[in-house]
Specification:
This protein has 416 residues and is mainly alpha-helical. It has helices spanning 15-32, 58-74, 79-91, 116-131, 137-152, 177-194, 198-217, 252-271, 279-295, 321-338, 341-358, 388-395, 405-415; strands at residues 36-37, 40-41, 114-115, 153-154, 159-160, 163-164, 175-176, 225-226, 307-308, 314-316, 319-320, 369-370. The chain has a single domain (26-415), classed as Glycosyltransferase (Alpha/alpha barrel), CATH 1.50.10. The chain is built from 13 helices and twelve strands. Helix 4 (116-131) runs parallel beside helix 6 and helix 6 packs parallel to helix 8. The two termini are 35 Å apart.
């Protein structure tokens, strides 16, 4: 790759790249519309169809609601009604009317638990829907904040507790970086929408624990699993290395997500008049560099592997679309923050890889998984249920760092 980009216009400012991003985003949205069910949104297969027995999933519904709210703010017709459908579902059939909080899917049963990861996405969806002016979104947001503060946020720990049984009596003896990462994302949005800076301080406390303490002590490898005393569980799920949400070892895709969120947090703190700690940007750079060095092409094939063992060897060699989407978004954020040409190189390299291997122009949307030879697969993630990562990667490069996506999109449209 040519290292001299000094005479070239950055893709972040290139009109052709911006037009491509916006067009690809609309293509993803058109595909995702088929996920609508009476009780929310369900998971689509590789051809963009719902299974005959498909049920509404709360995670899918929350992510779709968030994305359709962003699309409405961008001025894409037909998306307000879809975001409103998601809000109605999250206030109705997906909510536990008896004990509060949200089931994993419509018709949740007595054995259903309550997971912090899921509730963080409900809060994110609600905040985006409020910015988009969706009817009922304010009530959903109030409900989501109440559940997080009553059950999940631990002031003593400065982080989220992981999960409970349905009636909120039995907590899971586990703490997770993944749920707290998405809580950090949601808290940045809550700070924007509510105007309450406490959410920024909570996001900073989470980042201090997960990144500044544990990742920094482990060579900026993100420790994913902990016990209730926040002691690392490095052997967790060793027998299930390809788990969707709690894989064994380290997950380079999460390093990219964390790095980007640290930059958003830094910018948001500065915008609110707080002096952000210097480690935020330093950690973001190191997380990105470490993940790229350890995961890109490490097995002889281009692209980023899903997971690594603690010996830094590939454990799950599949390439997942969300990992590459987050690498793109992170490279864009670091390029915007630092202006360093190496982040431009990585931004282009990741989009080139996505264009060649993940984007499915024949079947629609993106392949969610590639095998070890970079051919479409579905062992870990069958079908194409997830709009969130890909769509955000297409929206983020055009936004300032200091705002959550919905607020950033709204302000960006207003300025034009």
């Amino acid at each position: 790759m040519n290292n001299d980009l000094s005479s070239q216009v950055s893709w972040l400012q290139a009109p052709g790249h911006t037009a491509w991003r916006l067009a690809e985003g609309q293509r993803l949205l058109a595909f995702a519309r088929a996920a609508k069910l009476a009780e929310g949104f369900g998971d689509l297969d590789a051809a963009g169809r719902l299974a005959d027995d498909a049920s509404a999933q709360t995670l899918t519904t929350a992510r779709m609601t968030h994305c359709f709210a962003l699309a409405h703010l961008q001025g894409i017709p037909g998306c307000l009604g879809l975001a409103a459908h998601g809000v109605t579902a999250l206030r109705g059939p997906l909510r536990d009317a008896r004990y509060g909080g949200w089931f994993a899917q419509a018709g949740g049963c007595e054995g259903s638990g309550k997971a912090a990861y899921l509730h963080a996405f409900v809060a994110l969806a609600a905040s985006s829907a409020v910015v988009a002016g969706v009817e009922g979104a304010e009530a959903l947001l109030t409900d989501a904040i109440g559940v997080i503060e009553r059950h999940f946020w631990s002031e003593e720990e400065g982080a989220l507790r992981e999960a409970y049984d349905r009636v909120w009596q039995t907590p899971e003896p586990y703490r997770g970086a993944n749920s707290n990462m998405h809580a950090t994302e949601a808290f940045l949005a809550l700070a924007d929408v509510t105007g309450n800076p406490v959410w920024l301080q909570r996001a900073l406390r989470i980042a201090e624990r997960i990144i500044h303490t544990h990742a920094a002590a482990n060579g900026y490898r993100v420790v994913e699993h902990f016990d209730v005393a926040w002691q690392p569980l490095k052997d967790y799920n060793q027998a299930h290395p390809a788990d969707h949400f709690r894989p064994y070892g380290t997950t380079p895709g999460h390093a990219f997500e964390w790095a980007r969120l640290l930059l958003h947090l830094e910018a948001s703190l500065a915008r609110c008049g707080h002096a952000p700690p210097p480690w935020l940007v330093d950690s973001a750079r190191t997380l990105f560099d470490t993940a790229c060095e350890q995961a890109w092409g490490v097995d002889g094939q281009p692209g980023l592997v899903y997971t690594l063992g603690w010996d830094d060897r590939p454990r799950v060699r599949a390439r997942l679309h969300w990992v590459h989407a987050e690498a793109c978004a992170c490279a864009a954020a670091l390029l915007q923050r630092t202006g360093q040409a190496r982040f431009e190189q990585w931004y282009r390299r990741c989009w080139d890889f996505i264009s060649e291997h993940f984007i499915d122009l024949a079947g629609g949307s993106w392949h969610h998984e590639l095998d070890v030879d970079n051919r479409p697969a579905g062992t870990i993630w069958p079908g194409k249920p997830d709009l969130y990562h890909a769509y955000q990667a297409l929206v983020l490069p055009g936004l300032p760092l200091a705002r959550s996506l919905a607020t950033g999109v709204a302000l960006n449209v207003t300025k034009r």
